[in-house]
Design goal:
By secondary structure, this protein is an alpha/beta fold. It folds into two domains: about 55 residues; about 100 residues, Cupredoxins -  blue copper proteins (Immunoglobulin-like, Sandwich). About 35% of the residues lie in helices and about 30% in strands. The strands form three sheets. It has a six-stranded mixed sheet with strand order 1-3-11-10-6-7. It has a three-stranded mixed sheet with strand order 2-4-9, with no helix packed on it. A two-stranded antiparallel ribbon has the order 5-8. Strand 10 and strand 11 form a beta hairpin. Bound molecules: copper (II) ion.
């Protein structure tokens, strides 16, 4: 009798664990572990992606950047040193964004782009800057819309 009880208890236990695992996979457990893994991998990807795109900075004449859903499509722009240049800013959102240049994040503003609602495109005439690393951002959403401006 004891053996049978043990077996059935083990079965029940296994069934219970299986159900828990299945429930966990389908629901909270998996969602939580996925979002945790997703967050960390997304964060590390964003970091490595940031570094990667910093080395492959978007250059062009004029430079082009667009905004959609409160995000820039580029996190790095490359411009020539000691030469005025243009940045064509395409705001695809129906609300206001701008393209502004600072010497560094939270630093001195070097170029103040007009805040305008989209969908609309605006050409920003950026004055000549000495070689160096600068910061660009949207003055409406400075913490979520920003990037690096490499001048060389
Ligand atoms: Cu913005």
């Amino acid at each position: 009798m004891e053996g049978i009880n043990m077996k059935s208890m083990v079965r029940v236990a296994i069934l219970g664990v299986t159900l828990l695992l299945m429930a966990g996979c389908g629901r909270m457990g998996d969602v939580q572990s996925q979002s945790k893994e997703g967050d960390s991998s997304a964060a590390s990807q964003a970091h490595s992606g940031g570094k990667g795109s910093a080395s492959s900075c978007e250059a062009g004449e004029p430079l082009e950047i667009s905004a959609a859903e409160t995000a820039f499509d580029k996190e790095c722009l490359a411009a020539p040193a000691d030469k005025a240049f243009k940045v064509t800013f395409n705001n695809k959102d129906s609300f206001g964004h701008s393209f502004a240049v600072y010497d560094k994040e939270g630093g001195e503003q070097l170029f103040r782009g007009e805040i305008f609602r989209g969908p609309k495109e605006l050409v920003n005439d950026i004055p000549a800057l000495p070689a160096g690393s600068y910061h660009f951002q949207c003055d409406v959403h400075p913490f979520v819309m920003q990037g690096a401006l490499k001048v060389s």
